[in-house]
């Protein structure tokens, strides 16, 4: 087994999302880190749009993932939510298992300084679900959390709707989020938004505003890679 083999898990069944993650991540990791990718089986939903589809995706993916655990040193669950695969996989392995939701929040807290941070996500239902998740992870005060703004698109629509429309909807959500307060960090709240940092930057140009943009998938992979390099990639 490669000492730094990381499995990036897309728990929905949309292969185009996995392909976009692969294209973005492979050039970023060190040469001695090997990335492998998993797409949810056909029984998994095409898009995770709420708690019900999240639970369905976990049920569909877990049996296929358990046999893969011995072959990798760490795991990234690439769904921006309190996805149940994270705690479930931790029941079967002591190796690092990180969800992109918690990875991006950790990065945001380290970068925000005395300012605020927020999330731009897909469907409106995630505004409440992610806000609850932030409270569960960092406490009710949110540590500078300014909230969640949504695009109205589902994860799979980020790859089926026209690129210009996707960027416009992300940009509109960014402007609304910036209007909430002194936002210094914006988290991209969907794995399907990977590589869409430029939509945030373009939306902020007319406002003369710059922020840190956190891609949760990048954050998750870098966290797991760091944990493995620190010696936490072996069973204890």
UniProtKB/TrEMBL annotation:
GO terms for molecular function: amino-acid racemase activity. Gene3D superfamilies: 3.40.50.12500. Transmembrane segments: none annotated. InterPro entries: Asp/Glu/hydantoin_racemase (IPR015942), Hydantoin_racemase-like (IPR052186), Iso_Racemase_Enz_sf (IPR053714). It comes from the Eukaryota. Belongs to the HyuE racemase family. This is Asp/Glu/hydantoin racemase. It comes from Arthrobotrys flagrans (Nematode-trapping fungus). The lineage of its organism: Eukaryota, Fungi, Dikarya, Ascomycota, Pezizomycotina.
């Amino acid at each position: 087994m490669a000492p730094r083999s990381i499995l990036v898990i897309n728990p929905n069944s949309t292969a185009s999302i996995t392909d976009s993650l692969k294209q973005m991540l492979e050039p970023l990791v060190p040469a001695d880190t090997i990335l492998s990718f998993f797409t949810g089986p056909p029984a998994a939903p095409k898009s995770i749009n709420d708690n019900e589809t999240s639970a369905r995706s976990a049920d569909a993916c877990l049996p296929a993932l358990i046999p893969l655990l011995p072959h990798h040193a760490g795991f990234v669950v690439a769904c921006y939510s309190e996805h149940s695969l994270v705690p479930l996989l931790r029941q079967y392995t002591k190796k690092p298992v990180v969800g992109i939701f918690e990875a991006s929040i950790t990065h945001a807290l380290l970068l925000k300084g005395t300012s605020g941070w927020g999330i731009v996500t897909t469907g409106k239902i995630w505004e409440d679900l992610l806000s609850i998740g932030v409270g569960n992870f960092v406490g009710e005060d949110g540590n500078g959390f300014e909230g969640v703004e949504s695009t109205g698109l589902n994860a799979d629509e980020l790859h089926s709707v026209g690129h210009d429309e996707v960027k416009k909807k992300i940009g509109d959500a960014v402007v609304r989020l910036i209007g909430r307060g002194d936002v210094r960090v914006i988290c991209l709240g969907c794995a399907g938004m990977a590589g869409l940092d430029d939509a945030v930057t373009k939306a902020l140009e007319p406002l003369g505003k710059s922020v840190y943009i956190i891609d949760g998938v990048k954050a998750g992979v870098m966290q797991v890679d760091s944990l493995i390099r620190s010696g936490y990639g072996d069973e204890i």
